Amino acid sequence: MLVGRELTKTYGSQFALHQASIELNPSSITMLLGRNGSGKSTLLNILALAQAPDSGSVEVDELSGRAARAAIGFVPQEIALFEDLSIEENLRCWCPLPAKAARERVDEVLERLDLTDIRRKLLRNLSGGQKRRVNLAVALMGQPRYLLLDEPLAGVDEDNEQRILELLADYARQGVGVLISSHQPRVLRGLADQALVLERGETIFSGQAADYFDSLMEREL
Amino acid sequence: MRLRQWIVLDMRRLFRSRKLVAATLLTPLVGLLVFSSVVAPMLLTGNNLRVPYAICNEDKSESVRQFVTMMTNSESLRDLAAAYPVDDLEIGYELLQAGRVGVLVHIPDGFYETMSAGRDPVVQLIAYSAHSFEQTMVRITLDGSLRAVGQSENILQLLGKTAVEAGADEADIAALLEAEFNNCIDQYLHRRATLGAGGTVSPMGELFPLEYYLSALFSLFAALAMLPTLYLSASDLNGPVCRRGLLAAPAAARRFYVARLLSGATLILLTLLLLLPASLAIQGMGVYWGRQGSEWGFIALAGALLLISLGFSALSLLLATLSRRPRLALWCGFFLILVMAALSGALVAEGKLPQLLAEAGRFTPLKPSMNLIAGALFNLEPARYGHDMLRLLLMLALFIAAGLPLVHWRGATR
Fold first, then answer.
1. Is this model's pTM higher than 0.80 or not?
2. Is A48 touching B (CB cutoff 8 A)?
3. ipTM passes above 0.90
4. How does pLDDT run along chain B (414 residues), one tens digit per residue?
5. Which terminal CB of chain B, N or C, has fewer other CB atoms within 10 Å?
């Protein structure tokens, strides 16, 4: 289990996150919702061990150090790739596996994300949707136990959106715990098991995704 | 990522980017071309790298005649310049047109009178534009020498006058002044054996200007070669490396730092190695490695180049952490190099800088780099070499001590 306990982060005098807690189980999909500036990205960065909280703790299956980091696949909101390298080169440079295993893994991930035909294209020559897929592919290279995705569907067309969602569902079935943030909760309906909603760094809802959508419908009515 | 992965990635990215490749490889090539076009006419005109010049002295005074005689017969200048005294300006022009000399120095009649009267005397330097480099070198050397001689003469005359007014015998004073004047000129012409406050690199006296220009050129290109690493590091600290949280852990930040330091140093060292053939050519033409043909010259040079490369690489990393915009970091780095070059005497002759600025130049890595290259190539003085190596080592330690925590801080705070 990936557990974040009472996580707090401030920027100056402003709380980006205040006492937020989350438990991410294997084989589950949790959706992380909230407006811009609610603390979603901060929470994801902290859970991905990319940023340290001011207080609170993060536990990853009782692992620590490099092993803990290796267990997490993080897809940041911005495209975090080397524009001067090709898709294949980007995947290989981020892969923690030995050379032969890395090659096989690259082929596997490229196949999964339908990037095989354009593997030698330079990043700078790709469309936004293609870059998003490569951004996701990098996170999959290390065979993570947990996938944390920050707005992976932003700026993505319907086809790519569907492809990404199917992939995430597939990984969840294989035992990976998925945490995905989005502005569009309806897209994740039917996919997510759990929901966590933030507002101004505070948790305003934490529970079953179905309960969240029911409450959403009640508010609309 | 592992250390090896970082280094391989750096090399791939540095040589993948056309802009970066152009910046690293073209810069020293341009330097070599400039150097070759400037030095080639000199090489074709004279023997090895001695500057051949004709000197026509039309001044009738004994002082100037003695000065010219001592200059043309000077032991210390024999390795550096070949002087051809001529009685007539026409002969001087003929030598110039025949390509036997690169520069014709004309000291006009009345030169000493003008100088004694406190006015600025004029010496003509005549050369074809292809030999402008030698003309500049002769001008700098002669300018400094004549100024020193003229001022010294005035001071001695004043002392003599004061002594006579105090009651000393005029004839005795005149004889003493004449003897001392000749002694002073002799000392001045042999000043190369004495290291001045400027160290082994100074355009105004201690080293022949060619050596000065070469060491300044090599050092400047080493500094410019740090720009690709600076841009790459600034891009990474504001881009994918930080966004994926790769530098959040102290150990990861250290790996990144060490890998970038080594790959940056490798790039700078490659740039310097490209310039070494020029120095080998100089060695082959009789300008030796170290004053006495020291067998340690090559090892000293290798050590110096390694430390210089690491120093500038560490500086580039430090600068990269200070800006959140890669292009701004690049421009700041470029202008910083220009400032360092000016303060260190690479762009502006050290003797012409205000004292405070010249002192400030000692605290930049460019100055000890210039000293080390000049020393290792031309005049290996162990004490001086050790002093400059230590200075550069301290700067390297300082850059690392400041840069490494900043890299970690940038990675942790994003």
1. no
2. yes
3. no
4. 778 878 888 877 777 766 766 666 666 666 666 666 655 555 555 555 567 888 888 887 877 787 777 777 766 566 567 788 888 889 989 988 888 888 888 888 888 788 777 777 788 888 887 777 677 777 766 766 666 666 777 788 888 888 888 888 888 888 887 777 767 766 666 555 444 444 444 444 444 556 667 778 888 888 988 988 898 899 888 888 888 888 888 888 898 999 999 999 988 888 887 666 655 665 565 544 334 445 566 778 888 999 999 999 999 999 999 988 889 999 999 999 988 888 887 766 666 667 777 778 778 899 889 888 877 776 677 888 899 999 999 999 999 999 999 998 888 776
5. C
Residue of A nearest to B243 (CA): A80
Statement to judge: residues B293 and B150 lie in one domain: no
CB contact under 8 A, B414 and A49: no
Are B36 and B144 within one domain? no
Residues of A in contact with B5 (CB under 8 A): 93
Distance to chain B for A40, nearest Cα, Å? 15
Residues in chain A closer than 8 A to B9 (CB atoms): 82, 93
Question: Does B25 share its domain with B143?
Answer: no
Q: How many domains does chain B have?
A: 2
> What is the CATH classification number for the domain harbouring B72?
3.40.1710
- Are B72 and B221 members of one domain? no
Query: Three-state SS string across chain B, please?
Result: CCHHHHHHHHHHHHHHCHHHHHHHHHHHHHHHHHHHHHHHHHHHHCCCCCEEEEEEECCCCHHHHHHHHHHHCCHHHHCCEEEEEECCHHHHHHHHHHCCCCEEEEECCCHHHHHHCCCCCCCEEECCHHHHHHHHHHHHHHHHHHHHHHHHHHHHHHHHHHHHHCCCCHHHHHHHHHHHHHHHHHHHHCHHHCCECCECCCCCCCCCHHHHHHHHHHHHHHHHCCHHHHHHHHHHHCCHHHHCCCCCCHHHHHHHHHHHHHHHHHHHHHHHHHHHHHHHHHHHCCCCCCCCCCCCHHHHHHHHHHHHHHHHHHHHHHHHHCCCCHHHHHHHHHHHHHHHHHHHCCCCCHHHCCHHHHHHHCCCCHHHHHHHHHHHHHCCCHHHHHHHHHHHHHHHHHHHHHHHHHHHHHHHHC
Q: Which of B172, B193, B214 is the last residue of a domain?
A: B193
B225 in the same domain as B127: no
Nearest-by-CA chain B residue for A41 = B243
Asked if B179 and B309 sit in the same domain, the reply is no
The answer to whether residue A101 neighbours chain B at the CB level (below 8 Å) is: no
A204 touches chain B (CB under 8 A): no
Q: Is A76 on the interface with B (CB under 8 A)?
A: yes
- Map out the domains of chain A with their CATH numbers: 2-71+145-220 (3.40.50.300), 81-143 (no CATH)
Domain extent at residue B14: 3-41+202-413
Same-domain status, B360 and B226: yes
Q: Does B250 touch chain A (CB under 8 A)?
A: no
Residue B33 sits in the same domain as residue B116: no
CB contact under 8 A, B244 and A80: yes
Residue ending a domain, among B173, B193, B213, is: B193
